Amino acid sequence: MDNLHVLFPTLVYEKTIDEDYSYIEKKLKTKQFDTCKQWRCNMKTSIDNWNLIEDEMFAPLLEKIKKEESQFSETFGAYGNARAVDGWINISAPGSYQEYHIHTDCHFSVSYYIKSKPDSGNIVFRSHECNSDMFTLPLREFKPASYKTWASAPTPGKLLIFRSNLQHMVEQNRSNEDRISLSANFVIDEEK
Questions:
Q1: pLDDT digit string, tens, across residues 129-170
Q2: pTM of the predicted structure, to 2 decimals
């Protein structure tokens, strides 16, 4: 349609970053993980006791992620220094899940998958429109303009970057193995 305007797009950036995960899995055995207290969920996380941006071992991987995040932020017209403010590991055992949430006090958030199997729990993003759509359209078929959620299956090496205010959740891990992911939050410091 010539007169169609695409307004207020929701963007999620996806890229595969190949990495040798053996060093991460060894390190995980030495760290403490607690059941997540910040959201209603039953996964284990290091969010309260191990900030990955302070661990030199993660510096090379976080630098790769930062490079991708900087490119993605330019899509929004944001130019400046991308700075990771925190990072953590999530371990989702069989049966675990995480409710819808956002990340406050940051511009962009990332999910990076270290270990996953099929059916280990998709990340699901939900449109901001879900909070105000009180009178839904009678649809004969779903088209991209009518989607309110979008799911992405975890695969090792997959990186997802999104605005931190985009609601997201993780479906139940229905596999028989843990899913391990790295999450981090970034801010863009304005260039002067």
A1: 877 777 778 888 888 888 889 999 999 999 999 999 999 999
A2: 0.91
**How many other CB atoms are there within 10 angstroms of residue 142's CB atom?**
9
Q: What is the pLDDT of residue 43?
A: 79
CA 41, CA 47: separation in Å to the nearest integer?
14
The sign of the torsion formed by the CA atoms of 70, 71, 73, 79 equals positive
* Centroid of chain to Cα 126: 13
Per residue in 82-92, is it b (16+ CB within 10 Å) or e — as a string?
A: bebebbbbbbb
- What's the helix, strand, coil split of the chain in %, to 5? 20, 35, 45
Residue 26 dihedral angles phi and psi, to the nearest 5°: -65, -45
The pLDDT score that the predictor gives to residue 176 is: 96
In angstroms, the first-to-last Cα distance of the chain is 41
Note whether 175 and 119 are within 8 A (CB). Answer: yes
**How confident is the model at residue 40, as a pLDDT?**
64
Report, as ranges of residue numbers, the positions in the chain whose pLDDT lies below 50.
Answer: none
Quote the CA–CA distance of 75 and 169 in Å, as a whole number: 24
Which residues on neighbouring strands pair with residue 12, listed in sequence order?
Answer: 162
Asked if residues 90 and 180 have their Cβ atoms less than 8 Å apart, the reply is yes
Q: Which amino acid is at 31?
A: K
Distance CA 106, CA 97 (A): 23
**For residue 38, which of 85, 107, 83, 104 has the smallest C-alpha distance?**
104
Sequence-ordered list of residues with C-beta below 8 angstroms from that of 48, at least 6 positions apart, any chain: 34, 37
